[in-house]
Amino acid sequence: MEAVLAHLRAAIERGDYAIGDKLPSEAELCRTLEISRPVLREALRALQTMGLTVSKTGKGTFVVASAVEDPTFGDYAASDLLEVRRHVEIPVAGYAALRRTPENLDHLAHLLDRMERETDTTAWVAMDTLFHLAVAEAAQNPVFRRVIEEIRDALARQSAFLNELGGRREQSNREHRAIVEALLDGSEHDAVEAMSHHLDRVETTLTDIVRPPGKGTDTPTEGDPQA
């Protein structure tokens, strides 16, 4: 899927498909690129998330931008989502370290163990959002949980995007483990640092995915997974 996405993205950024153009049909793309329809549809969804295309039911997929600027996850732009997460989840982690109950810790530890064993990305993404909700619950302030609930769908979409295109799952598990260990220790400082690091890595991976291809990577081949 990454190779197909790189191929289509580069074609759009080169101008092979200009703004307003309709991409070839799924059947034509599958035939031309010699790929299955599920793989193509994953790549098309990623293009839309990146903000390069829009899908119109019954009409096809149309190019709406020539370069990736700010992906959208559900109702929210990535930059807006990350800004809010920094202002909410970092202090929330500190409060959670000071206020967590034994039940909160047991729930987080059990959830983290399941995430570290999970191999299915869809199931892992669902638990990823539950993890961040559980940290908010440990802060013992229902408003924090309500805020995370509001952005829960966007968090799931962002998590899926980062895992599909950035291979974030194992790294994220390690970052989550550091957060839980800080909560176990009751260290506000360490919890804040661990959550800050986690969000820094999220931002770095997003930047790596959406930045314009470097010199020499503007003409990827179908077999090149890193365009």
TrEMBL record:
UniProt keyword annotations, A-Z: DNA-binding, Transcription, Transcription regulation
Region of interest: Disordered: 206-227
One matching Pfam family: GntR
Stretches assigned to the HTH gntR-type domain: 1-66
SUPFAM superfamilies attached to this UniProt entry: GntR ligand-binding domain-like, Winged helix' DNA-binding domain
Extent of the signal sequence: none
Protein name: FadR/GntR family transcriptional regulator
Lineage, highest ranks first: Bacteria, Bacillati, Actinomycetota, Actinomycetes, Kitasatosporales
